[in-house]
Every structure is written in structure tokens, then in C-alpha cells.
Write a structure and sequence with these properties.
The chain is an alpha/beta fold. The protein has 2 domains: 262 residues, Rossmann fold (3-Layer(aba) Sandwich), CATH 3.40.50; 43 residues, no CATH class. It has a 6-stranded mixed beta sheet, with helices on both faces. Strands 1-2-4-3 form a 4-stranded mixed beta sheet. Strand 10 and strand 11 form a beta hairpin. The chain is elongated and about 80 Å long. It starts with a helix and ends with a helix.
């Protein structure tokens, strides 16, 4: 069953007792996910490439596996002629091959201000870091290459895909450093969220090679049409998994009243007394989620949501059960 099917079924993972800090990313906690990630398959698939054949993604062993035959085209290697099909049809055919490769797993993590927020459970940023580390360990156990991009309002941390424990530890170190820097410097002023997200996707395209599996971890605030266009270009030759993080307060407002809330940009007074405004607020959330889900379908990818009170690791485990 696909991730999207599991999401649409409405089954959600109930929150578990918290371990570690709910507001700070802890490297030791992320490293401890090493054993828990064993046995999790990240759904390897064949990714269409702009070149002949298909990629699973740098080489494991030698040789190539036959994929299919197609009519010969000018410029094809004559050594790959399929003489049996040519003799049977009377027309020249050539063989296409699928090279056996390791996959590259790219993990894109949003550490902008809105991700450092929660009214229950863990900050969205902490949930995203735990999910990212779990995916990285699962990729390591599957002998995949691990890389990605972590970004905030002020900085981008790019990680080229490499293999082994060192690759995961490097990624975890980057997560902890990036989160610590952003958490301790929260007064960055108002930045153009759309530009920041779009620029990070441009950088992600530079890091990504065809045949990769890309995990996108964010609340997807400020994802505009330009950002979506970059996602569509990434999806042409790669498999996309969108994991949308949210807090219950972003889904629906609490009972009528006045509430002091810090959304990561200073304390604000939240007025929930107007019933019409509360309904409009909730409908906006569901429209955004529906838009993300429809975008994911267009990308031929997978869609998953994780709320701040959720047991994020069990959610991921359930989503990737074979």
C-alpha cells in the first residue's frame, strides 16, 4: 500500500510518551534511532531517466540488466542491436538496459521560524529532525547514499550524497547545528518566506542527480508557484515523498477567547471569539493540505502528514511497511 493510501485511510498514530526535549534537537536521540530504523525499506522504485534505460541509482557490482527492446534510432550503439527481434519483425531494434545502482536518498529539511512551534507534543522542527534522522539510518541500512539540504532564513547546509555511518552522522551533526543556531537566534526579523523556500529548492536541484528518492520535510508555508515548478522539475527523474508537519492549533482554533501565542516571530494575541473566522481558519488549513496532496499526485509521489503530538517514528514505520 502506498503512503498516500495510508494517509487517505484516516489512520493516525497516537502520540507516545515524549523522550528527549520537545523543543530542542538532540544529536544523541537522533543517533539512538540507528537500531530502530533497521528493516525499514524506503520503497525502492525504478525511476525514469531522460537517457535510455532506467536507473535505480551509483553502481553496485558490474554489468547491466536487460530492460526492453525498442526500434533502433540514429545514434544508438550498434553493439546493443537486438538481432532476434530485428529478424522477427524485419525492422532494426536495439536493447535497453537497466544499470544496477545504489540509490541516493536526499532529505530536505525546513528549519525556518514557523517550524519552531508547537502547542502540544514536539516542535515541528524536532519532529522533522527525528523523521529525517530515521530516514537517513534506514537508507544506510539499505546501502543507499545519504545527502540533502537543511535550510533556515539565513543559511543553507548542503550535503552531497555519500554512504555509510559517517554519512548519517554528518547529516545528524548538520541537523543539530542548524537547529541549535536557529533556536538560539530566533529574532531574525521578518524574511521573505517564499524567496527562502524557492532558493532552497534551487539548491536542492543542484545536489540531486536523476534516480534519487527525495524526502521533503516542512510545513510548506510560503510554497508558491515558482517553488512548485522546481518540485515538478525534480519529480521528472526522481521519486518524491512530501511529509507535511503541522500543529493542531494550525488545523483548528481553540474555544472562543484571547490567547497569547508565539508563532516563532514574537508574541501575538490570538482572538478566537468569532465563529465565522474560526470556520474560515479551519477551511484554509484543509484547503492547503488538499492542495499539497493534489500537487503530490501530479508529481507521482507520496503524501504523509505528521502532527506535533504524533509518534512520528511509528507513523513513518507504518507508512513504509511492505
Amino acid at each position: 500500500m502506498s503512503i498516500s493510501s495510508r494517509f487517505l485511510s484516516g489512520k493516525r498514530t497516537i502520540s507516545a510518551p515524549l523522550k528527549g526535549s520537545p523543543v530542542k534537537v538532540n544529536a544523541k536521540e537522533l543517533i539512538a534511532l540507528h537500531h530502530e530504523a533497521k528493516g525499514t525499506k524506503l520503497k525502492p522504485t525504478r525511476i525514469r531517466s531522460s537517457q535510455s534505460g532506467q536507473y535505480i541509482s551509483p553502481y553496485i557490482g558490474r554489468g547491466m540488466t536487460f530492460a526492453e527492446s525498442r526500434p533502433y534510432q540514429s545514434g544508438d550503439d550498434a553493439r546493443h542491436m537486438d538481432w532476434r527481434v530485428t529478424a522477427r519483425t524485419g525492422k532494426p531494434y536495439t536493447k535497453l538496459f537497466q544499470e544496477e545502482r545504489e540509490r541516493s536518498i536526499l532529505i530536505w529539511v525546513d528549519f525556518r521560524s514557523p517550524m519552531f512551534f508547537a502547542t502540544r507534543g514536539r516542535f515541528k522542527s524536532v519532529q522533522a529532525a527525528r523523521v529525517a534522522a530515521y530516514i537517513a539510518w534506514a537508507a544506510k541500512h539499505n546501502n543507499d547514499r545519504i545527502g540533502g539540504l537543511v535550510f533556515s532564513e539565513k543559511q543553507n547546509w548542503e550535503l552531497r550524497p555519500t554512504t555509510g555511518d559517517k554519512a548519517v552522522l554528518r547529516f545528524i551533526h548538520t541537523l543539530s547545528i542548524a537547529a541549535k543556531e536557529r533556536f538560539e537566534n530566533r529574532d531574525l526579523g521578518l524574511e521573505n518566506g517564499e524567496t527562502i523556500m524557492t532558493n532552497s529548492l534551487v539548491r536542492l536541484r543542484r545536489v540531486t542527480k536523476p534516480g534519487s528518492q527525495i524526502f521533503l520535510l516542512s510545513d510548506f508555508r510560503n510554497l508558491n508557484q515558482t517553488g512548485e515548478a522546481h518540485l515538478k522539475k525534480l519529480a521528472k527523474n526522481n521519486e518524491m515523498v512530501i511529509i507535511s508537519h503541522y500543529d493542531p492549533l494550525e488545523q483548528s482554533l481553540p474555544q472562543p477567547g484571547l490567547y497569547p501565542v508565539d508563532f516563532g516571530q514574537g508574541m501575538q494575541l490570538l482572538n478566537t471569539k468569532n465563529q465565522k473566522s474560526r470556520k474560515h481558519y479551519q477551511s484554509q488549513f484543509y484547503r492547503r493540505q488538499e492542495h499539497l496532496q493534489n500537487l503530490c499526485k501530479k508529481l507521482n509521489g507520496y503524501f504523509l502528514t505528521i502532527a506535533t503530538p504524533d509518534d512520528a517514528i511509528n507513523t513513518i514505520k507504518t507508512a513504509f511497511q511492505s
